[in-house]
Amino acid sequence: MIQQKIAGVFILHAQMTRSMLLSNYYIILLVISWWWCCCCCCYLAHATSAYDHHHHRSSSSLSNLSNWARQHGTVLHPAVQWVDYGNGDWGLQLTSKVDRGTELIRVPRSIVLDSVVIKDELLSSSTTTTSGGIDNATNECIIDALGPFKVHEENFWIVLKLYQCLREGKHAPWIGAMPRKFRHFSREEEDCLPFYAKYIVDYQRQKLDAFIKAASIICGHELDGNEKEQFTWAFDAVGSRFWKTTSSINKEDYQPRSELVPIGDMFNHREPPNVKLYHDNEGDAVCFLYLGEEGEEDDDDDNLTCYPKDLLITYGLGYNPHRFLVIFGFVPTDMKEIWSHFVFSDNNPYSSVSKMVFQCKDGSIPQDVWDAVFYDLDPSKDIEVMRHDPMAKFYASEVLNNHVTKQLDELKQLREKMDAIAVKGENLDLIKMHNQFLTDVFRRVQVNLKAELGKQ
Q: Fewer Cβ within 10 Å of end Cβ, the chain: N or C?
């Protein structure tokens, strides 16, 4: 009788949990946390990507960039060189052995687009012109224009600055080495995206509109077609290349900020990385230090045979595949884990988004996910007790299996839609790769869940 009552409580909570999965409030919260509330590095990668035709860098543009960077005080270690991966995709390599902790690149903050510095400079003048500043009243109008996207205010100041540099010919060698075009999805292609990927596309479109509205206030007129095109380019460039960061040292004296770093934005990336970002506050510079490779020893001369080797920085927020597709335009099929796509109650103490993941390789489910489901099933019960309760594990498995089945059903419908679509968009192959990657991971997870259900 007691067992039946407990089972009834579990079933009730399971139904409630399933009904919350597409809550718009939680979706918005997740999207914002994906892009903003973390120290995330934003670089374009060449590995497993399909955006090569969006890059138009030439050897001459990179030579101009190198000369410009040196003239402005950027220092590259002698063992660092450019590498051409083909199709205009460039990165950085290490040509000989260096010790862990070696400073590879030092970029003076004078050429870094820093959100705090940009805003402070604009507020220093009351002239509301494109190249001038803004007063406090205008600043308030800008924040109002950003509306719900004011959480991305730091991002806005960098986009505005890059747009102004493009219009005024400043930082030309750096801008000339950037991609001239970024990936956009047509309406037909958007219809082939999974729910959360499509949500990000819509969110980015609305965010761009808000940024343009705010920029128009500073410029003193509504942006025309050509200006909007240039602003959109700046929006795309910053979105795929900036990061939000805090200081590596003197943290109590450092104001969190977003920044776009010349040369630093040319790194490709990987998990785990072999390069890390470091802020030398005393030296007023952004630095990149060599981390070494896993298993590599500082005195291991055999590693000389591994050179040249790619220099790679972290993905940053490495568990959201939709972010990589929409913002960066590639599919990292080598991801170790992906977001589970499961949305929990807002008061669940175990549901940290970064821990709600499935392992890609074998579809295993971390204990953090089980604990979050246990809590939503019955918040009154002790988690440690539920971990060892076969019935709790059964109902948690049922909830997760139903969720994964819904994800697979959606991906199946999208696959059928793409097979039948008449118009072939340039991004469809990439979307297919993305959807198939998700399908493969969810299928592995489902195998594990069915095995768990089969134990009862």
A: N
